[in-house]
# Entry
Amino acid sequence: MTGPAEEEDIAVVPEGHLFASAGGGSPFPVPAARSGNRPSGLPRLLAALHDRLPEDRVTAWENVLQRVTGPDDPVLDRFISAQSAVGLSNQLRAIVDAWRTEGSELTGTGLALALATLRATPHPRPAQPVVSGPLSAAISARLTSGVVQEVIRSADASLLIASFAAHGAEDVVAEIAEAVDRGVHVDLLLEESTQASAAFAALPRSVAVWHRMASAGVLHAKLIAADRHTAFLGSANLTNRALTDNIELGVVLRDPAVVGPLVDHFRWLISPENGIMRRA
# Structure
């Protein structure tokens, strides 16, 4: 939202662009809002893409944009066609369509700079729905299997994973193993009665497996937390069917103010002095 002191530096022109003065130099065009304070399609779509993808995938898109001459460059079409994530190619094509209709004079480098600015600006990212099973057009959801691997991949120092059941899920186990190779410390909180730990038997001994001590209840939580910045919560256990075929529902959180306390709670659960969980 533009403050009173900034309004004098911005003027609306008939072509539907804002010309913002850059340090007293020549003005440069950026897409303008179409009505009220709602951003036009292109900025909104770029922001949605930034919120959807992990940083390395956003950077890959920026690199492509820096190499293209405009929205009709065949390099764009080849890159978009190669995307395997559900719905991502449609999302990228919507950006290209908006670029063509709303700001075809903008360069790919300009769009890449916009995405880089989003990455460099700290802000809580919205919760993102995640599903297993059939996908509808009702929400911009993503498949659980891919999201789980991306969250694990985003960890730099620590992973905290909780699951009631685990079976198969070879891709997830492989991602955890790669995280260990990067120096990430991994804690697995698993329900002992389901023999979930067997799914992770091939992981290095440095991976800490935790079981709940004898009580009337079980460990039923499903959580994957990368450091203190990203967490996946949902109904899906770490099984092949739950990650792909079952009808499951979850959410990705990318707000450290929310993720941090979740991590603290589970680390409290595994603290030996609290007598709640024990090392397997």
Remarks:
- Residues 1-39 have pLDDT under 50 and may be disordered.
- The chain is about 35% helix and 20% strand.
- The first strand starts at residue 10 and ends at 12.
